[in-house]
Amino acid sequence: MIIKNVKIATKDGITEAEVQIEEDKIVKVKKDIPSLDKIIDGEGKLLLPGGVDNHVHIYKRYLRVPTSDTVEKSTLASAFGGTTTVIDFAFSDRSPNIDERISQFSTSYVNYTFHIFANDLTENLKRAFDMGFKSVKFMMVEYAGMKSNLLGLKRINDFVREKEGYIMIHAEDEELINTLAYNLKGAPKLHLLTRPEESELSAVIRILPIVSKGLIAHVSCGKTLDLLPENIKAEAVLHHLILSKEVYDRKDSYLYVTSPPVREPEELWKRIDKIFVIGTDHNWFDKEIKEEHQEFPDLVPGLPGVELRVPMIITEFIKRNLPLYNAIKLLSENPATLNNLNVGKIEEGYRADLVIYNFKEKWRVSVNNIHMADWTPYEGYEIIGKPETVIINGEMVIDKGELVSTPKGKLLK
């Protein structure tokens, strides 16, 4: 297969190129590749490396309120949005463990891998690393019945450092949150007020002397980015870059609850050069589920986002006159590099996960033109361009906006 008549974004600008694919790999990237292979005409559009979402929660059944999706539904939405690899989560010492999650993702349209939830070093965590997984998710708040402390984090860090992995940290100060929330009930805005910026800052400061190589998940305030040394990277997620704390003044503010809450997106954009990856923290809850939990503290945090990450972030970079190549690094190359995955670049030897992106199409987000959930927090947002053709593992999955394949995603390590 050869993709002809496309443009590729590089650090030096936009260049014309052709890409030859054999089986599931890119074998040539140059101009005027002679061949009798099947030819895909890119019609002068932009060719992107498939997106890599470092942070999704798909088919999450282990919390009090399960998500509304299936693996097939969320990964189909991912493919339509130009994200060809998702990184979800498995537990080291409770269900669903890594074997169970691998089985659940057998119906995935996109490639996938997993971070491992752990609150201490155990034999099961060691086994996960022996299987080839190299990242741990450490929660600084109680999660799925797991409680954590810094001694457990230190033991994990000593092990992960030796194995050349990294620790992804949910950084919120649980004691501060519980103190501020003590005996409170009422409007969803209390979720924002009891999880102030200081909660994130305090948690980050506490882990800095412990973690050798880390990633702060879903950074929600700009001041956090100012604290981070070179060995601790920052992940931003879609909702923190788009939505502001004004959503908590809406009558339906319960729909927009996330942990940590959305705050001031411009404080993140001012420091976009300090962000290493952009994910989504995708949680597909249909509207009815959210409506059943409208009063603090009985709220359901999480927003659907995996389909919109690539087009919305590209749109923001265009509107803000930021280099398109930098958007691609945040959406594809950097998360792939962080997780040692052979994706995220249009170069020889890389996995053939590619997206033909049509910049001529402008459209507004509506629940009627996306493939996830029965509502969207981004209703009415105008997007520049759309993923039109999506190739995963060297096979076409979406052809000019139409699904042409069955679920064939692979486990990557």
Task: Give a description of the structure.
InterPro entries: Amidohydro-rel (IPR006680), Metal-dep_hydrolase_composite (IPR011059), Metal_Hydrolase (IPR032466), Metallo-dep_Hydrolases_sf (IPR050378). This is Amidohydrolase family protein. Its cofactor is Zn(2+). This protein is of the alpha/beta class. The protein contains 13 helices and 20 strands. The strands form 4 sheets. Strands 3-2-1-4-17-18-19-20 form an 8-stranded mixed beta sheet. Helix 12 packs antiparallel against helix 13. The mean pLDDT is 97.
Distance between the termini: 25 Å
Query: Can you summarize the main beta sheet?
Result: 8 strands, mixed
What does the overall shape look like?
globular
What portion of residues is helical?
Answer: 25-40%
Would you tell me which CATH topology of the largest domain applies?
TIM Barrel
Helix count equals 13
Provide the CATH architecture of the largest domain.
Alpha-Beta Barrel
User: What's the structural domain tally?
Assistant: 2
Rg over CA atoms:
21 Å
CATH homology-level superfamily of the largest domain = Metal-dependent hydrolases
The order of strands across the largest sheet is 3-2-1-4-17-18-19-20
